[in-house]
Design goal:
Blueprint (H helix, E strand, L loop, with lengths): L10 H12 L8 H48 L7 H34 L1 H31 L6 H77 L19 H4 L15 E4 L2 E4 L11 E7 L18 E5 L11 E6 L5 E5 L3 E3 L1
Antiparallel strand pairs: 1-2, 3-4, 3-7, 4-5, 5-6
Main location: cytoplasm
GO molecular function, one term: phospholipid binding
Pfam families: BAR, SH3_1
Length: 357
């Protein structure tokens, strides 16, 4: 068996290595061990790179986590308390923060810690490999010395020969023990790379999948909050009202028109609605023989589907009794409060989708 060895730092080892390089002293090498050593070096380099890149990745994730929290805190501060979904926005921001915390904890505890444990095997194994190299040099040195003692029969000293043989056998035992252990440990370590990588990546990708799926749900809720705010803003819910005389109602907001199949043309909007002391009246409406609290009646000329819980849905031909708003402050331009005669449902509805009776 031929076994190659690493250079020892002592003068004796350096001299022996120098003579071996010149071809004046035979050296021992082990082709099988060489293959194990090459595999070890590749595996160690891969583990070091993976550890470096994942440490960088988790640092970036934590930076994004901090930025996300700062952003959501800012949004909660600037989102005014009277706006729709204010409390829900806060709840969803907290949910998002908890998702980030759970995600980073999983990356650190279930991915990074096992990776560090896996990578920590290599420095210890490297020390053992280097020790084997030194013991191999000692063994070759003792073998060379013992051969020298036997090569000169005239100056043969049996005591030196006996002592040389003992030192040779001791060096051989030490080397062969380390060599045998490494022949078992290096292949086992190399074979473990596949199972480690599979387990580690499965944990990583599962954590990623859960985080992105759940955070997508949160962002969907946040989007719905903002969409509702946009709809209410288009209806003028958050517009400052001027202290002027009431004006004739205008057409309902554009978003309401998107809900119905057909939209009344602008030139067909009923112009005969006026306001007196904040109460809706129609110039062409009959006010005789109406139930108490009913201002007048209208008939639906277009189909309308409500966009909010306080609105009224109706079909073409439905009769609606117009009543006063419970709170005059809630009254919006172009909208009436009414009760459907057939179902007694109550809610706001766009005036220009109806005509007075």
């Amino acid at each position: 068996m031929r076994e190659e060895f690493s250079v020892c730092g002592t003068n004796c080892s350096f001299s022996l290595q120098f003579l071996q390089n010149l071809g004046k002293v035979d050296r021992t090498a082990d082709d099988i061990f060489d293959e194990h050593l090459q595999n070890f070096m590749r595996q160690q380099n891969a583990a070091n790179r993976l550890q470096k890149e994942f440490n960088n990745y988790i640092r970036c994730v934590r930076a994004v986590q901090a930025a996300s929290k700062t952003l959501m805190d800012s949004l909660n501060e600037i989102y005014e308390s009277q706006w729709t979904g204010h409390d829900l926005l806060y709840v969803q921001a907290q949910n998002l923060d908890m998702l980030w915390q759970d995600f980073t904890h999983k990356l650190a505890d279930q991915v990074l810690v096992p990776l560090n444990t896996y990578q920590s095997q290599f420095p210890e194994m490297r020390k053992k490999i280097d020790k084997r190299g030194r013991k191999l040099v000692d063994y070759d040195s003792q073998r060379h010395n013992f051969q020298s003692l036997q090569c000169n029969p005239r100056k043969r000293d049996e005591l030196k020969v006996s002592r040389g043989k003992e030192l040779l056998e001791e060096a051989k035992r030490t080397y062969e023990q380390l060599n045998s252990e490494l022949h078992d440990e290096l292949p086992a370590l190399y074979d473990s790379r596949v199972l480690f990588l599979v387990t580690n990546l499965q944990t990583l990708f599962a954590a990623e999948q859960v985080f992105h799926t759940e955070s997508a749900k949160v962002y969907s809720e946040l989007e719905a909050i903002v969409d509702k705010l946009a709809n209410e803003s288009q209806r003028g819910s958050y517009t400052l009202k001027k202290s002027t005389e009431p004006q004739s109602p205008k057409s309902p907001n554009a978003n309401s028109a998107l809900i119905i199949n057909t939209q009344p043309a602008q030139n067909n909007i009923s112009p005969d609605v006026e306001y007196e002391n904040g109460t809706n009246f129609s110039l062409g409406a009959t006010t005789d023989n109406l139930p108490p609290g009913v201002l007048y009646r209208v008939k639906a000329t277009y189909k309308y589907r409500r966009e909010d819980v306080d609105e009224l849905s109706f079909d073409v031909g439905d009769i609606i009794r117009v009543v006063e708003y419970d709170d005059p402050e809630e009254q919006e331009q172009g909208w009436l409060m009414g009760i459907k005669e057939d179902t007694n449902e109550k809610g706001m509805f766009p005036a220009n989708f109806t005509k007075p009776l």
